[in-house]
């Protein structure tokens, strides 16, 4: 099968797609940004050469890039997967309409942003709106990460096209290491629109002197909010806390090592996030969190707000909280009882077995089926 995967934005999605589609029967071409190249090569190792790579350079305008793509990407494609598109929807949709594609799959990150955009007096916003509509019309199948997202799309009557639940993640068991210190990690960029870091820092500062725990913020600070959080980390550290944080992007292999050495992931996701063009998304319903995929990939327990709709099949490895006080109580209960931690770890690892490479490859096989095929159900 000839497969093309378009992903200019998210390095963390390139690796699992390469794992899932990288079997002998597929000839896979990735369209990615050159800034990802070093991390991709390190992550894939010798498998890097099993794929064809088309890179967009930082100096290229998108129009020139699309022009070059017209020449470089030839032939018939059994599947073209738009893994992420965050800008230039109109130019991309026009390009796709000019290609010989048997099946176009669009991976939906933010449902409302894609389906509920609207006309505007702002020209660029209107062009984005038109591009999204063309992309939605051109798509043969939509991919979402959770059953709750598919349910939302059905309830809203957003499309009569197939909607498949395929989270871009493959379980990779970590090599067990002796834990000198229980480690809590909040993965991802320090972005107040996405996660509430203050609730975590407040809870940590209340218990860190009583319990020997380490906190890692595994992401780059974003804007004023991110800098404020880093300054708060410095203050807590100077008062005896053990917090590791970063001032810049974390290399992919370092990020994976951090998560492998993590005891429990904390994901203080916001209930509602305001995205581009002022369109709001509800975490767990119209948008998934990459933190959940981090937990699945590494078989780690995760602590989430109670409002987040959990993906099916991971519940026994999840602990939820409602308020800051409840988070403190939850953390104390978990970290003060080794039996609780062992049970959560065992459950999380067992749940992640539903996301082995064999099972994920079976899931994506439905992308090559006809619309009438029962695999689309």
Q: In terms of per-residue confidence, which ranges show pLDDT below 50 for 5 or more consecutive residues?
A: 371-377
Relevant CATH superfamily of the largest domain? Glycogen Phosphorylase B
**In CATH terms, what is the architecture of the largest domain?**
3-Layer(aba) Sandwich
How many β-strand runs?
A: 17
Question: Assembly state here?
Answer: single chain
Structural class category? alpha/beta
Topology-level CATH name of the largest domain: Rossmann fold
Instruction: Please report the number of helical segments.
Output: 14
**End-to-end distance, in Å?**
22 Å
Helical proportion? 25-40%
Gyration radius over CA: 21 Å
Overall pLDDT confidence: 93
Shape: globular
Largest sheet: 7 strands, parallel
The top-level CATH class of the largest domain is Alpha Beta
The strand line-up of the biggest sheet is: 3-2-1-5-7-8-9
* Content of β-strand: 15-25%
> What's the number of domains?
2
Give your account of this protein's structure:
The chain has 377 residues and is α/β, with parallel strands linked by helices. It has 2 domains: 2-169 and 357-376, Rossmann fold; 182-355, Glycogen Phosphorylase B (Rossmann fold), CATH 3.40.50.2000. The chain has helices spanning 11-21, 37-44, 62-72, 89-97, 111-115, 123-138, 147-155, 197-207, 223-238, 252-260, 290-298, 324-335, 338-352, 357-364; strands at 2-7, 27-33, 52-56, 76-77, 79-84, 100-101, 104-107, 141-144, 163-165, 182-187, 213-218, 243-244, 264-266, 272-274, 280-282, 302-305, 318-321. The relative contact order is 0.12.
């Amino acid at each position: 099968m000839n497969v093309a995967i378009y992903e200019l934005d998210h390095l963390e999605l390139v690796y699992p797609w390469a794992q899932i589609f990288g079997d002998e029967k597929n000839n896979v071409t990735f369209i990615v940004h050159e800034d990802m190249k070093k991390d991709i090569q390190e992550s894939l190792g010798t498998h890097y050469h099993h794929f064809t790579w088309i890179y967009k350079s930082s100096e290229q305008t998108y129009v020139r890039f699309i022009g070059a793509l017209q020449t470089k990407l030839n032939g018939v494609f059994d599947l073209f997967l738009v893994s992420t598109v965050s800008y230039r929807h109109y130019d991309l949709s026009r390009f796709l309409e000019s290609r010989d594609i048997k099946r176009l799959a669009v991976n939906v990150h933010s449902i409302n942003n894609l389906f509920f955009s609207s006309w505007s007096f702002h020209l660029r916003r209107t062009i984005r709106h038109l591009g999204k509509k063309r992309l939605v019309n051109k798509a043969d199948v939509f991919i979402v990460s959770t059953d709750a997202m598919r349910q939302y799309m059905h309830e809203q009557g957003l499309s009569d096209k197939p909607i498949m639940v395929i989270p871009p993640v493959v379980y990779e068991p970590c090599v067990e290491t002796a834990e000198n210190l229980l480690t809590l990690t909040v993965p991802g960029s320090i972005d107040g629109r996405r996660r509430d870091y203050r609730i975590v820092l407040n809870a940590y500062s209340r218990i860190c002197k009583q319990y020997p725990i380490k906190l890692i913020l595994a992401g780059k600070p974003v804007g004023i909010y991110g800098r404020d959080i880093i300054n708060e980390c410095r203050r807590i550290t100077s008062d005896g806390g053990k917090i590791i944080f970063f001032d810049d992007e974390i290399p992919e292999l370092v990020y994976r090592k951090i998560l492998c050495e993590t005891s429990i992931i904390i994901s203080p996701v916001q209930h509602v996030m305001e995205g581009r063009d002022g369109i709001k998304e509800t975490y767990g319903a119209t948008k998934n969190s990459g933190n959940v995929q981090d937990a699945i990939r590494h078989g780690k327990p995760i602590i989430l707000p109670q409002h987040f709709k959990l993906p099916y099949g991971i519940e026994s490895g999840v602990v939820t909280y409602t308020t800051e006080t409840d988070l403190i109580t939850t953390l104390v209960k978990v970290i003060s009882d080794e039996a609780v931690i062992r049970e959560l770890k065992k459950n999380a690892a067992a749940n992640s077995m539903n996301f082995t490479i064999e099972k994920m490859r079976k899931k994506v096989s439905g992308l090559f089926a006809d619309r009438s095929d029962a695999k689309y159900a």
